[in-house]
Queue: 2 jobs
Job 1
Amino acid sequence: MIPEKKASSSEYDEKDITTVIADDLEIRGTIKFKTSVMLKGIFDGEIFSEGLLVIGPTAKVTATISTKTLISHGEVSGNVTATEQVTLKNTSLHNGDISTPNIIIENGAVFNGSCSMRAKDTTVK
Amino acid sequence: MGNGIPIINEPVEGRIVTVIADDLEIRGAIRFKTSVMLKGIFEGEIFSEGLLVVGPTAKVTATINTETLISHGVIMGDVIAERQVVLRNTSTHTGDIKTPFIMIESGAVFNGTCVMERGDSNFTAGTAIVEQPELPEEFPPFEERQEPLPEVRPEQKKRQPREKVRPEEHASAPETAAINEAKEEEPKPGELL
């Protein structure tokens, strides 16, 4: 019903994602990657990424996330630092702080936390 | 996506009741029930039961209480919106936001804390949302403001005995009823002419 805005930077093709972690997999610990990962299961720990992190609609992630780009469809608890962009899709739930120069929150997403952005207009009166 | 997310229906400028142009500077408090578009400089407090649109040229330093906020401009201050906050791509927001539904477009700048409570404790992410059609009653889509055109006629017929305003409907959708009432009153001057 709602006309969805297609921002190219927030779209991806699941086939193009290097690693897809399915929804029956539970991970505790730290992951590090450079290209792209899609999480569909339960993750608890820390994520360090220089690429794209996609959190699927079935995922439950409790983590401190440091990434270039984050696209979330699922549930995230924890602080996120993204050097490029954060996208909270309409099904997402985010509890925690976000620090990023560019953010997109779709209508329907839930975000509880602080957002700090420094990229643009820091000199705004 | 029929899951109760308010549809953003931003009226064109001509449909907004009050448009405060960009050469006007206001200090103080404003209070309104329908819709206001600010294009100038505002400092103070805003109490609204309707729609506040902050235009791209506006600079607003205010504590804002409203039903819906759509911002294209610069806002500094805390916002409580009962229905929805929309930060468009040209907007800059510094301050806290409390609202059940938020949308932030790519390009918007938001520095502050966002608190979202939907009064629905079993709300969870993912598929659960899609399975919950209950939300629409609590948060009727904003679109209903403009929709009633086809609805108005049957409403008017039924409403002639004004006292019998069907209490159930009022209970279930008080806002819609109120909006319809407002809509009904608008065409009347036209009829008189």
Job 2
Amino acid sequence: MSTSTDESTALRFYGGRAASAIPIAFFILWAIVQSGLLGIGDTSGLIVGILVGLIVGMFFVRGSWKTYADILFDGMTQRVAATAIVAWLWAGMFAETIQVGGFVDGLVWAAEALRVGAALFPAITFILAALLATGIGTGYGTAIAFTALVFPAGVAIGANPVLLFGAILSGAVFGDNLAPVSDTTIVSAVTQDADIGGVVASRFKYAIVAAVFAFAAYLLAGQAMQGTPIAAASTGGEGTALGLVHLASIGVVIVTAVRGRHIVEAISWGIVLSVVLNLLLGLSEASAIVAFEASRESALVQSMDAIPIVGALIVPVDPGGATVSGSLYTGAVGFFPLIVLVLLIVAAAQLMQRGGGFDAIQEFLLERVATTVRRAETTMVLGTAIVNAMITINTAAEIAIAPYIKTIGRRFNINGYRRANILDANTAALGYIFPWGGGLLAGYSAMQRLPDQYEWFTQAMVVNPASVFPFVFHGWFLVAVFLLAAWTGYGREYVSDRASEEVSRV
Amino acid sequence: MSRLDKFLAGLRLRSSTPSFEVGDEVPVFVTGRSDDGLLVRVGDTVLELPDADPSLLDAKVRIEIESFDESTHRGTARVVEVLQNEG
């Protein structure tokens, strides 16, 4: 924790340490009014919210405002933000490229061939999203890929859009929580002085219980909420089944990630294979992947258009309509607003850390709330929830709250595995529940492009981020399992219970 | 610990007031202090370390249980070994 004691760099506020939370608190209020009350799911609008919050917070600074500005820069250059940004950009390009290759048509064909109806579709989607997220270790990537690919297929056969989006986010929660290669899993283990293998093994007893209930809930809700299939969608047949070859592209990503390669490398191989398959099998034109839409009146454009291979990427258009397009372009560009938002949020979180806001929360919790082991564990669950509501990028939220979980847990000799599990499960869950959460907005960003891609996909089918939170069943059940576990002692282990593992760990 | 044991560890309802036998040696964090010396809280069980060095607050130590009362969930212990002392 980087609470500076040096007077020259100390950040102090009128109104005390709690005032360091003003930028984030302002942002949350803005998000609730914008998304929750007014129903505007515009990520760029949230950027204005955090910007205004950062300006308002500055007026409460005692002493030099330069310190405030410097910490803002420190916050924006943190690695956690870069990690989320990379995951979004790469997953966006990958999902979009598979999409232009007809994967969604393939899924619709498969759902019809296997007789997976609208009622069963959300439950199956939850399982598949959970498997992908556990394999590749990024819930954000999974939310993007599944919203771009599986979501339209499900809506086409009549599944309820809100329920289906909830099922996708639930799968992302499951993977972020359990995957050994997930950022949040690694942060939870490292910050609580526990080994990653032991943490993952000790995590199943909570995750499986929640997943069983979530699966059942999607089966029941799927029955109750199914709509009517959309006639304009794929009608099946050989042509549409071919898009399923992209299961190989997804398989490459999973296998590469599971073998321990970096997610950038894993998804890059997936992109390469999907481009090759699209071109070799004629699933899409080269210009659907990357196209330079340049003025047809230019002589250079005309001559380049005539060159073999290179010409495939040149699309002459009317003057004034020049742009770059294609799946790689739209896949990445769709996340630009979210990227700016995350940079500003982690900066605001850094201000709150350096301003002592988090320390104030910890002291209050330790002295007033966490007076017994049950109350301490409940506090750890709720404290994680609060911080995730404020810092909406789950890895960043986890890093911010981790030292406090460690302090509160050690006060009762709760062992590292248990602490890591409480920290990670609730971070994974709540990052996809709050309507302004990074995972939810990542999926939503992918969804906003669907009306442009499918004629039958109307704006009414785009799910408002504020309406999906009740349907992220796995997230809710996971939080419930931990609240129940805090009360009953299910899964609780003390430092004295598992001596050798922790002591032997360096 | 075998791989299966790692999955099954903690798969039970653990008491908020764990019990100890006299003579048990266990690793713990020293969690607080009282008028009589340092304290170790394990859940809601409290173990006193009357003779321990005050600088061991927040350190990880191995202790030997010297007395334990099941009804009050309190006991006394002595430090056998300092495992980790960051402070």
